[in-house]
Amino acid sequence: MPGEMPSTAGGVSGVAVGVAVGVLVGVPEGDPVGVAVGVAVDVAVAVGVDVAVAVAVAVAVGDGVGVPVTDDTVVGRIGSPVAPVEKFTEIALWLSVAGKETFPLWDVVTTMYHESVPGHHLQLAQMMYRADSLTRFQRLGVFVPGHGEGWALYAERLMHELGYHDDPAYELGWLIGQALRAVRVILDIGLHCEMRIPESESFHPGEIWRAEWGHPFLIQRTGHLAQFLESEVDRYLGMPGQAISYKLGERVWLEGRELARRRMGSDFDLRRFHQRALDMGGMGLDQLRDELCTIDLSKDSD
Fold it and tell me: What is the CA radius of gyration of the chain?
């Protein structure tokens, strides 16, 4: 029912696209593959990428996860976490339990859009599909966080724009995720640049950021579980700028889309825009902005 926050107690079944989206479309949890394929086709049409690619990804995602909760990890199946993959294969998502005993689906749905379709899995599958036009280095040798994570965060927002967060519970899940992405920009920059907290703030006003304040600040401002946020602080300290890349990248994707829309007017085709953008593969944000602003959506550009 709208507004409810359904949960799975004691286990996670088909955590990938299948179950999370199954709640949205009313398909039983026992058929994650069917759910994933059905939703993938809808999303592929909306986003503008090859339907066959989306279905291949959806089958892998829907069938690749269906796992029990252990003491501290949700264990999924995955081929090789290190070796590059140059063909479609089984894929899975790994979720950290981080102190959880239940997994409410209200905040999982937007994560699945980020990690699977139309997010990372679809993005990377499209790069493999375009092996004839992208170099092996572009496909396998480099992942630019601003481009890749920016797309996945943009994908979450896109699904909201397309109405897939029409249930208030799932919209809340998207918003709480956005809150974390915004707060960690403040924390990452503040800690690594040793910036001073504004006097107008209630949290340590006028003082220079210290690492031990990161955890309570995240708890106060995001609403996420304390154990999960503890690992987040370690992540920010160990990888300066990585967490910021999400929001920076999303902003470039949104700016590029808007500039392309203004330039083309009524000729702008959102689905075509997404297809052509993903076909180009990964790149730095300055180049991405330039490419999106001048993107060619004509059939001759294929």
Answer: 20
